[in-house]
Amino acid sequence: MTMNPTELKGALEAIIYAADEPATLDQIAAAVGEEKHVVRTALDEMIATYAAEDRGIEIRAVAGGYKFYTKPQHHDVVRRFIKSLRPPLRLTMPALETLAVISYRQPVTGPEIQEIRGVNVSGVIKTLLEKRLITTAGRKAVMGRPILYRTSKEFLMRFGLSDLDELPSLKEFEQLARAALGADEGIALNEPDAESQSELVPESLDATQEQAKPTEVEVDQKAENPKVESASS
């Protein structure tokens, strides 16, 4: 199969747009029937074009492949748009604290979360599962095989994130959480029997943020994401 440059770029754009995960050079070349060096040249030209033009999206080379992302200057408006599609969630501060631990330490087990927070978190984990902000990620290969937890696609959409690499610093997490969950009305006071911690994020988590940087998780564009990352942004 031989395409002219315009046809090839159109095909590459369609493939990257449709892919749930970053599309690799090998995958793209096989799909369009062109040599890899031809595809790479076309992709480089497309990346430069999207970066230079006044567009809301760009193509990035990430995780060994290529994917559409919204440009950073448009993240605030995209988050507002995503938030408008869903009513605010109401979470207690302990739930937000637990969500922060899972976000920066994932995949993580219940006992590990409990060790960091210093309190029983089984009820909070159940709440986060019910609200679809976290999901299970198999079991850890240790004695007892405890369940692993990670953030979900719903979490990414609620926070207006393309992937976990866009998570803010821990110091910014509370502000982003308030914006994503509907400002103060989305954050409930601690229940009488709940933990009385005053900070959103435990200090013990700060030192482990970098070493626990999570791997990238992509939002399912076709099923759940209203094209936050893609060409119809």
Explained architecture:
This protein is an alpha+beta fold and 233 residues long. The chain folds into 2 domains: 5-70, Winged helix-like DNA-binding domain superfamily/Winged helix DNA-binding domain (Arc Repressor Mutant, subunit A); 75-206, Arc Repressor Mutant, subunit A (Orthogonal Bundle). It has 10 helices and 8 strands. It has helices spanning 5-18, 25-32, 36-52, 75-84, 93-105, 110-117, 122-130, 153-158, 170-180, 203-206; strands spanning 23-24, 57-62, 65-70, 91-92, 108-109, 134-139, 147-151, 187-188. The strands form 3 sheets. A 3-stranded antiparallel beta sheet has the order 1-3-2. A 3-stranded antiparallel beta sheet has the order 5-7-6. A two-stranded parallel ribbon has the order 4-8. A hairpin with a 2-residue loop joins strand 2 (57-62) and strand 3 (65-70). It starts with a helix and ends in a 27-residue tail after the last helix.
Can you lay out the helices and strands and say which pair or pack?
Layout: H1 5-18, E1 23-24, H2 25-32, H3 36-52, E2 57-62, E3 65-70, H4 75-84, E4 91-92, H5 93-105, E5 108-109, H6 110-117, H7 122-130, E6 134-139, E7 147-151, H8 153-158, H9 170-180, E8 187-188, H10 203-206
Parallel strand pairs: 4-8
Antiparallel strand pairs: 1-3, 2-3, 5-7, 6-7
Helix pairs in contact: 1-3, 5-7
Largest sheet, described in full?
Answer: 3 strands, antiparallel
Query: How many helices?
Result: 10
User: Helix- and strand-based class?
Assistant: alpha+beta
Beta content: 5-15%
How many beta-strand elements?
8
Across the major sheet, the strand order is 1-3-2
- The helix/strand order is HEHHEEHEHEHHEEHHEH
